[in-house]
Amino acid sequence: MTAELRELRHSGSVGSRSTSSPRKQRDDDQSPLISDEKLLDGDDEGGGSGRVRHARDRSFWSHLLTVSAFGGDDSRVSTSSSKISLFLLIVVAVGVVISVFLLLNRLNAPYLCQKDGIVLHCPHVKESPSLWENPYSATTSWKPCAERRTHGVSDLPPENETNGYIFIHAEGGLNQQRIAICNAVAVAKIMNATLILPVLKQDQIWKDQTKFEDIFDVDHFIDYLKDDIRIVRDIPEWFVDRSELFTSIRRTVKNIPKYASAQFYIDNVLPRIKEKKIMALKPFVDRLGYDNVPQEINRLRCRVNYHAMKFLPEIEQMADLLASRMRNRTQTSNPYMALHLRFEKGMVGLSFCDFVGTREEKLKMAEYRKKEWPRRYKNGSHLWQLALQKRKEGRCPLEPGEVAVILRAMGYPKETQIYVASGQVTKEELTTKEELEGFKKHVTSLAALDFLVCLKSDVFVMTHGGNFAKLIIGFRRYMGHRLKSIKPDKGLMSKSFGDPYMGWAAFVEDVVITHQTRTGLPEETFPNYDLWENPLTPCMCKA
């Protein structure tokens, strides 16, 4: 149809030119093309039949020029149209190629949820939802890649040729200590220093005298990191006054800010290590940043956390026994849930939130807060408004009753087997006194058991923040995202619990929709926030 239209347009233009004026006719007679046609037409130069044959022949040549996209001066219009058509054809072809590429890229793209503010949008999956595991198609796109190099040649200098020695006290509970040890390895790598095996400092709350070797496999720790940094078990023998390392300000770097950059250590700490040869870094809680250090340093922290820091074999074996007994409590093999219920006295008091309880219980809690935190408590008159605001913002620990209602709304039956972490009841129900006796010597050993049993659970539920929950969720993500790790939206739940007109059906719908993506699915690591809770960006690769 297009070629015919072009032919008609060209023929019409030729006809109009041949009859417009004598001058026009003379101009046409000057054309080389007309001259050739005259030879073909014979003696009918100006007659009607000659003009008919002339128009027909011109139409033939026009058609030929249009099809072949070639021509002289008289085919400028058709040539221009042909060029436009060719251009459009190329544009369409390029568009098709790009569309096919994008489609294939989308089909082959790894499963990754994207954050829009506080809302997490995840790709659609065809699998029906499961109470006990994340969709399989959401767990095959990523794999761990923070393992140590195999068949690599270490380029580390000998111990006596590094820039010096660093020593840290890992403070707090087991999980805060774990993070401090990971950071210590990273800092030693940044400064090319030798790390003295960290000391687990006694905490005022935990009051535990556990040593590194009482919890972790020291040989594995040193061997696994041998290609990354030099680690020694003790202070070198040539350093005579060991007490100086713990007490002398001349041997201590104290001005390290929270979340310091790698460059800060190179500019401010390394010169002192080179000068003194041995320096203690304290305090050392959160003294290394995340988005201001090289990616290989973050990957090294993951290597320490997920591969180098193994608990002692006896702790691992007891954790396996507890997990097995949890799955067989009903005489048949069943999945189990681990719940980190942060509702102990200290956490409830420190939160300064208001909770359900009798008048007597609330008076006791007020006295406890006044004694432990007198500056924050003052006269107590401002606490009600503070507690109300914190609950609206989702900054209060969930109560046991609230957790139970949320889990029922999600669809978990009342027969669900639940391991309650940070408590003695579950462990004592699953073991004999003799089995648990050896672990009661150290509070940290019991915390290690909780850590491993929660790690091995089919579903893990956190109820409040903290290093324990962050490390568990991060570890389960690093293991492949298959294991569900539920993180309740406490802000939204506080609104639902506070709505006296909300029925059960509406509440169930709110809970299910809100938490369908809050189960430990793959998402990018948020800068300077959740390396321990979400190690995907620096520590995992496309499968």
E-strand count = 14
> What is the helix content?
40-55%
Structural class: alpha/beta
State the helix count: 24
Low-confidence stretches: 1-72
Q: What does the average pLDDT come to?
A: 82
The end-to-end distance, rounded to whole angstroms, is: 52 Å
Topology of this protein?
Blueprint: H1 2-19, H2 22-29, H3 32-41, H4 48-68, H5 76-108, E1 114-116, E2 119-121, E3 142-144, E4 165-170, H6 174-191, E5 194-196, E6 199-200, H7 212-215, H8 218-224, E7 231-232, H9 242-247, E8 252-253, H10 262-276, E9 278-281, H11 295-308, H12 313-327, E10 336-340, H13 345-351, H14 359-372, H15 374-377, H16 383-392, H17 400-410, E11 417-420, H18 424-430, H19 433-437, H20 443-456, E12 459-462, H21 467-478, E13 484-486, H22 490-497, H23 504-515, H24 536-539, E14 540-542
Parallel strand pairs: 4-5, 4-6, 4-9, 5-7, 8-9, 10-11, 10-12, 12-13
Antiparallel strand pairs: 1-2, 3-14
Helix pairs in contact: 1-4, 6-11, 12-20
What features would you describe in this structure?
The chain is globular. The chain is an alpha/beta fold. Helix 6 links the parallel strand 4 and strand 5 (194-196). Strands 4, 5, 6, 7, 8 and 9 form a 6-stranded parallel β-sheet that branches. It has 24 helices and 14 strands. Helix 1 (2-19) runs antiparallel to helix 4, helix 6 packs across helix 11 and helix 12 (313-327) packs across helix 20.
